[in-house]
Amino acid sequence: MKKFLAILLALVLILCAGCGKTSPEPETQAPTETEAPTETEPTETQPPETTEPPTQPLPETEDAAILADHVPAILAIFSRGDTLDVVGEYDESYYVVKLEQGYGLVEKQLLALPDAESYELSGTPIQSLTTNTRVEVLDDLGEVLVVKVGDLTGFLAADTVSRSVIQGGGGSGGSGGSSGGQDGGDISLGINGGITLLSAIRQEGDVTGQATVRADGTEVILGFYDRDDIAKIVIEAGFCEDWEGYCTVLLDDLYAHVPQNLVRTSGEEAYTPWDGYAKYSAQLYGNFYLQGEGTILPSNTVVHVLCDLGSCYLVTVDETTGYIAKDYVSLTRSSGGSGSGGSSGGSEWSDPVL
């Protein structure tokens, strides 16, 4: 028994010794030297590069003085039957239209839209028609008709055209002046009328519809110059189509055309003013189209001619500046005081004048 107890005690001691022993901690490996991360200097954030749209090369130009007031810079000229994109109404007289070249103004009467106002004749007649000359009426512009005589299309006052043959007339193609619209008198085939001129047109707006051009020679106008304004005349070829009788101008980076007789370049000699005398029935107008009602001047009124504009003179009468047909100014006084004011007289066709 004692022997058994001794063995049991020995076993207990062995067990206690095993429980008191702690397990060895795992060996930790010494840290290895690693390459320190390279520090990079902070980089400045560069703004994204902005690319400017390519600019179109501009032609060489020279300055030219405008010789009259309200001279139009014309974008394009259209014929009867052409179609234009209309942006909207500019005012009571004009529509804004959009072309490939830019925006411009067209007189309402010249576009086939509802409620178009009547069209006014002006300028020099291109043919005197005898009574009962047969005309083909192409369009009715109110007070004016678009007509065709032979191969030429032009304009006639509506009250000078009759649907039936006029009895008792039979006059020959005499004076080129107006007959006053009375039956039996001669009538004159006119050209397209002048334009009530406005300020330059802004280059903006969406197309809202289309219109049909009602008359040949319809102008789309980019802007307007006044007397003594300086226009940039293009003198380098290859930038814009040349028009015979016109100068190409650069206006707000757009190309337009101005009648050559209404500008004077720096190389041209200035016009020498002179004094003349008004013929019988001479009228002084407020525009170089000689449009509207002019002021009738007494015969032999002194007229100070400032410039020759081709179809008319720019003049001053007393303190009034205006325009007068060249045929109505004489170098000498009229003895009778009732001389003719320069009748066109013949029955030959002449080229239409814009």
Helix proportion of residues, in percent? under 10%
Strand content: 25-35%
Q: What gross morphology would you assign?
A: globular
Largest sheet: 5 strands, antiparallel
Distance between the termini: 150 Å
Written account of the structure:
The structure is a single chain. This protein has 354 residues and is mostly beta strands. It is built from 1 helix and 23 strands. It has one helix spanning 2-20, and strands at 61-66, 71-78, 83-89, 94-98, 103-107, 122-129, 136-140, 144-149, 152-157, 187-191, 209-212, 218-225, 230-234, 246-251, 254-259, 263-265, 274-278, 283-284, 295-296, 302-308, 312-317, 320-325, 329-330. Strands 22-21-20-17-23 form a 5-stranded antiparallel β-sheet, with no helix packed on it. The protein has a 4-stranded antiparallel β-sheet with strand order 5-4-3-11, with no helix packed on it. Strand 20 and strand 21 (312-317) form a beta hairpin. The relative contact order is 0.18. The model is unreliable at 115-119, 167-199 and 337-354 (pLDDT under 50).
Quick take:
With 354 residues, the protein is mainly beta. The protein has 1 helix and 23 strands.
Task: Write a concise keyword list for the protein shown above.
mainly beta; 4-stranded antiparallel β-sheet; disordered C terminus; 35% strand; globular; 5-stranded antiparallel β-sheet; 5% helix; 354 residues
List the helices and strands and how they pair.
Layout: H1 2-20, E1 61-66, E2 71-78, E3 83-89, E4 94-98, E5 103-107, E6 122-129, E7 136-140, E8 144-149, E9 152-157, E10 187-191, E11 209-212, E12 218-225, E13 230-234, E14 246-251, E15 254-259, E16 263-265, E17 274-278, E18 283-284, E19 295-296, E20 302-308, E21 312-317, E22 320-325, E23 329-330
Antiparallel strand pairs: 1-13, 1-16, 2-12, 3-4, 3-11, 4-5, 6-10, 7-8, 8-9, 14-15, 17-20, 17-23, 18-19, 20-21, 21-22
